[in-house]
Amino acid sequence: MAVPGFTLGAFILLLLVSSVANYPNGKVTKSCRGMIPEHGHTPQSDPTCRISVSQMTFRPGDQIKVALSGPPFKGFLLEARDAENLSGPPIGSFTLIDSQVSQLLTCEDIQGSAVSHTSPSKKTEIKVYWNAPSSAPNHIKFLATVVEKYKIYWVKIPGPIISQPNVLPFTTPKATIASMPTLPPVSHLTKSFNASDCGNKKFCIRHPLNCDPEKELACVFLSFTRDAKSVMVEMRGPSKGYLSFAFSHDRWMGDDDAYVCILEDQTVHIQPSHLTGRSHPVMDSRDPLEDMAWRLADGVLQCSFRRNITLPGVKNRFDLNASYYIFLADGAADDGRIHKHSRQPLITYEKYNVTGYPENIGGSHSLLLLKVHGALMFVAWMTTVSIGVLIARFFKPVWSKALFGDAAWFQVHRMLMLTTSALTFIAFLLPFIYRGGWNWHAGYHPYLGCIVMILAVLQLLSAAFRPPLHDPRRQMFNWTHWSMGTAARIIAVAAMFLGMDLPGLNLPGPWKTYAMIGFVAWHVGTEIVLEVHTYRLSRKVEILDDDRIQILQSFTAAEAEGFPGGAVVARPPADAGEPGSRPGLGRSHMPRSGWAREPWPLSLRVRSLCSATGEATTEGGPHTTKKKKECLYIFSYRAKMAFYMLIVLTLRLS
């Protein structure tokens, strides 16, 4: 079964090792019986650490001091066993001396029957007390497993044997050290794998589809060739750390049968492993694998092995007569330690039976639903909402004519914002459809996405209850509407930056970030340019208004006192000005000397256009009002803002 809360991006090869050294907290209860770390490496044969005891004889109830010392080591596991049955359960219990560096474990349901480390910090000596039980055997032998680093460790280092008094002396067996696990032989491949039989004799998975592993270094190749009772597996691909594949019942991490080829010191180790839930992968025995071989050339790692189709009695190995999703992953490895895959694993589109009819298939590093989610969010919050904001902010004077009962700018703004909300809602549902629930492992991205969705809904609700233009609550609505919209845009952009790095999208390198920064910079720059442009034009109209007032006042005084040289100003007809204008402000017949000849047309044009907007002006009254500033847009915004809009629409929709 899948683990419901885990993303595909955390697929099987989170692959941080599972071992004594991989448990920095020392909770190595799994290794109690065999005392063997699950590293997949061969244990060292000559131990550098030693075990010492405070006395060589004991009685039931005695407390004996035991010390483990040697060169610096990171992890350890210490137990007491029956010297005549070293494969049996631990005997007695321990008491800690320093709980900062050691802790008690419960092995074989015996509390405190083993001691392990508490952290991966280096240590040179561990001291504890061993408590002899009332039913202790005649002879006790202390054993220790010590881990210096991931691939260097010693298993069941023998310690001294202590005995009860008045018993026959212990006879030392021929081999005091438990036999070390042996590894199957591994050979070297001499050439690249061949894909000519794919779809005929081999079941092949290739990425890119139909790539040639013999000619293309970037080709990722996995094949299965069936014979009577077994399957030959071939895997290759560019990697500096490891390659791996896994059989899975579903698209989620958990209960997966995985196989890893790990590069270490110019040698490739082939290792089966399994996962339980969201735990770290556990390296298993190589016994089920045969005919293991590998090759390393030109940065390309190749490995092959054979395994039986069915492995009855072998835990964690799947029956290959069934159908599974197949995963392919690669990543870094350091000193034999496998790290998280470097990109989203390649996953087949459906389940396949690799021992059935041979096929030639591909896979994908990203999922369609997640791609659609990202695309819809990008269109909504980098295109439609951006254009809608620009129209509402700068195009009111330009598109003020009525369209279906409302101003054209408002209709376009409303349409774009409704489109944004609809796209956001659809995109918001897609990850839940794909996941079947909440994703707890995608960082802050889903939380920010929920906030954006809530703000988008609140914006719609607030817009539905927008007060009339002259309502006292209109100003509060305007500020609330602007605040929620601005917050939603900022949070949406932050969510997109975080979402781009999630493995489900598999976007290319740093260019995704640069492209996103470019879109944001373009929109911010456009708003800044338009704001500066608006401010400069507002300043110009204020200067024009000041000049107009001064001219009007000057001519009012001139009419009362007469012009120099006895010239008399001829008043224009009463209808020469615009409706509502002061009589006598038509074009005058000015003398060649004295006053300038052309102030009147400019003043009249400004006054006439402002009067056309419905403004009632009075001589000497205020000259900087909202109505007068709107005259500015009539003068110049029609051409300039249309040009800006053309640029914005072209670049946004391209």
From TrEMBL:
Domain Cytochrome b561 intervals: 335-533
Record field: transmembrane: 375-395, 415-434, 446-465, 486-505, 511-530, 631-651
Annotated localization: Membrane
Annotated region (Disordered), positions in chain: 568-596
SMART domains linked to this entry: B561, DoH
Keyword terms, alphabetized: Electron transport, Glycoprotein, Iron, Membrane, Signal, Transmembrane, Transmembrane helix, Transport
Function: Ferric-chelate reductases reduce Fe(3+) to Fe(2+) before its transport from the endosome to the cytoplasm.
Protein name, entry field: Ferric-chelate reductase 1
Protein family (similarity comment): Belongs to the FRRS1 family.
Organism phylogeny: Eukaryota, Metazoa, Chordata, Craniata, Vertebrata
Gene name, Swiss-Prot/TrEMBL: FRRS1
